[in-house]
Design goal:
This protein is an alpha/beta fold. The chain is about 15% helix and about 45% strand. It contains two helices and nine strands. It has a four-stranded mixed β-sheet with strand order 3-2-5-4. The two termini are about 15 Å apart.
Length: about 110
């Protein structure tokens, strides 16, 4: 299954890349961290790597490394605003449990 961006997330990423003046898309990944085992990584990508899986969503490229793909398969990255808070939210169908602080998860 592809890794996708919601329309608001894609718009936010596209606007940020335009302001930076460089970049090919957004890189999503996971790392070992936190009390539940895995934490998300999110960064703007200036170039793709040969082993990257590349998905396109609402005109924005999403790059995922091969080790992270099994954990992110089918995930949608959303961008939400709730009151004064705004930020990215991972809608990941693979998550079985998350820690109380919301910083880490396991599958």
């Amino acid at each position: 299954m592809p890794v996708t961006l919601s329309e608001p997330a894609a718009q936010h990423v596209a606007n940020f890349i335009a302001k930076r003046g460089k970049g090919v898309g957004i890189r999503l990944g996971v790392k070992t961290s936190g009390c539940s085992g895995m934490a998300y990584k999110l960064e703007f990508a200036d170039a793709s790597e040969p082993e990257d899986h590349i998905f396109e969503s609402h005109g924005v490229k999403v790059l995922v490394d091969p080790k992270s793909l099994p954990y992110l398969d089918g995930t949608e990255l959303d961008y939400t605003r709730e009151g004064l808070n705004e930020g990215f939210k991972f809608n990941n169908p693979n998550v079985k449990d998350a820690c109380g602080c919301g910083e880490s998860f396991n599958t």
